[in-house]
Amino acid sequence: MKNVLKLVRRFIGIMLLSLVLLIVLNLVLLASYTLNQVPNGSPWTTAEEAGKSLSKQGGRYCMAKEMALSLQKAGIWAIFIENKTMQVAWQTDNVPKPVPTSYSVSDIAGLTRGYLNGYPAFPGEAEDGLVVLGYPKGSFWKHMWPSWDYRFIADLPKMALLVFAVNVVLVFLIYMVANARLLQSVKPIVSGIQSLPTGENVYIKEKGLLSSLASSINQTSEILRSQNAQLRKKETARANWIAGVSHDIRTPLSMVMGYAGQLENDKRLPDGSRKKAAVIVKQSRRMRNLIGDLNLASKLEYNMQPVNTAKENLVAVVRQVAVEFINMDLEGRHPIVWETEESLTACFAEVDKGLVKRAVSNLIQNCVNHNEQGCHIFVRVAKEGGSCRIVVADDGIGATDGQIGQLNHAPHYLACDENTTQQRHGLGLLLVKQIVAAHNGTMLIRHSRQGGFAVELCLPAWPNLC
Predict the structure, then answer these.
(1) Which residues pair with 102 in a beta bridge?
(2) Interatomic CA distance for residues 104 and 336, integer angstroms
(3) Backbone torsions φ then ψ of 306, nearest 5 degrees
(4) How far from chain centre, in Å, is Cα 88?
(5) Roughly how many angstroms between the first and final C-alpha of the chain, as a whole number?
(6) What 8-state DSSP symbol labels residue 87?
(7) How many other C-beta atoms can be found within 10 angstroms of the C-beta atom of residue 83?
(8) Cβ proximity of 340 and 367 under 8 Å
(9) What number of CA atoms fall less than 13 Å from residue 312's CA on the CB side?
(10) Is 381 within 8 Å of 388 (Cβ atoms)?
(11) Contact, 206 vs 215, CB < 8 A?
(12) Rounded distance, CA 74 to CA 438, Å?
């Protein structure tokens, strides 16, 4: 509904803008046309100048040569009516024959207000008389009765504004009536489009001006509904397949680990055979962890894994995981450095303790897996503002900028294309990312300060958010 109102406002805005621009354009054109007419609208001034240029010399009247030439070029004739005799005492050579040579007061009043024998006449005061200029017929239109009611002139601005307002209202009403059917068709179309991303079943009546668009939206809704149903079916099948395979592999894998463990501890076997059995045990454990990660990641992806949150001290939880790895590192090839400040004894958050331990364990194990020659692992918990931050870093081989970019943005784990036997970054990190997301947190992968690999987790601190 908001989009429909926005569309209506846009239409009205365009209409009003068009009206304003049209009015401004008309005013500009009117002003331009009026200014162009100003030079041709000065016959009164010309008549006054002609009267001043006429003088009596040696008992005869004559006009200045420049003024006479100017009148001749413009096709204007002129006469001079003397005050005493009311007769024409001087005239130009081009005076038409029907023009009278004697005048009365009423004749002078008539030509001043209007025309002389059909010629637009304009008088100008001269010495001892009156100069009358006659312009070609059809050159000027003279207002014969130049008088207006005072109230009409005083109220003219108000009337102009009122007429303008009435015109705007009429145009608006005509516009709304003309577009009412279009707006009625647009409303269900907009509602249908807004409902498409939500997965709702959309149906719009296929009628009106936009019937073809409504038909396309109905078809799109049906296609999306069918695709969503097929996708849910595939996702359920995949989740069930992963869970089934994980369950079926556990039993034979346990047997392999058990027998390999016995061979590893059988002192009657040669050292080479016992070492091979130890490798089998180690790789079997990794396979078991990978299967567990895959199963847990699938459950988290499809919201099948319950997240049982409680108020936990993340400093204690992370320290417990670090101690477990320290105890398992009998050869001392991956020493863990606890970098948490001594003053920070608690950082509480509402989390699932088991999932958080699994996330931190995966991060530490990731450092171990990718640095078989050994490295230092740095673990730190910090409280910054409204968040608890957990950082696990190492000073090992690290990763390239491209790999880090993919790990931060790609939804799947990153495989090494150069050598398929090498370790792969990602499945464990994907699981960590899903665990953090389930707690409304964020994960950032970057280079460590020690030149290796680092992962930073941000979880909402109790009771704040990141």
Answers:
(1) 87
(2) 126
(3) -70, 135
(4) 81
(5) 34
(6) B
(7) 11
(8) no
(9) 22
(10) yes
(11) yes
(12) 94
Residue 141: CB atoms within 10 A of its CB come to: 7
Angle between helices 211-265 and 271-301 (to 10 degrees): 160
Measured CA to CA, the distance from residue 319 to residue 345 in angstroms comes to: 11
SS3 content of the chain, % helix, strand, coil (to 5): 55, 15, 30
Tallying the residues shown for the chain, one arrives at 466
Q: How far apart are CA 339 and CA 449, in angstroms?
A: 13
Output the tens digit of pLDDT for each of the chain's 466 residues. 455 566 667 777 777 777 778 788 878 877 776 666 554 557 888 999 999 999 988 888 999 999 999 999 989 999 999 999 999 999 999 999 889 999 999 999 988 888 998 999 999 999 889 999 999 998 888 877 767 788 888 888 888 888 888 877 887 787 777 677 666 777 777 777 777 777 677 878 777 666 777 788 888 888 888 877 787 777 676 666 666 666 667 678 788 888 788 888 888 888 888 888 888 887 887 777 777 766 666 666 655 556 778 899 999 999 999 998 888 887 888 999 999 999 999 999 998 888 898 889 889 988 998 898 899 999 999 998 889 999 999 999 988 888 888 888 765 444 444 443 444 445 678 778 888 888 889 999 999 999 999 999 999 988 754 4
* Residue reference for tokens 């009546």: 205
Instruction: Look up residue 124 and give its two tokens.
Output: 């100008």
- Residue 353: Cβ-neighbour burial (10 angstroms; 0-12, 13-18, 19+): middle
3-state SS class at 85: coil
Query: What is the residue type of 28?
Result: V
Q: What is d(CA 433, CA 236) in angstroms, rounded to the nearest whole number?
A: 22
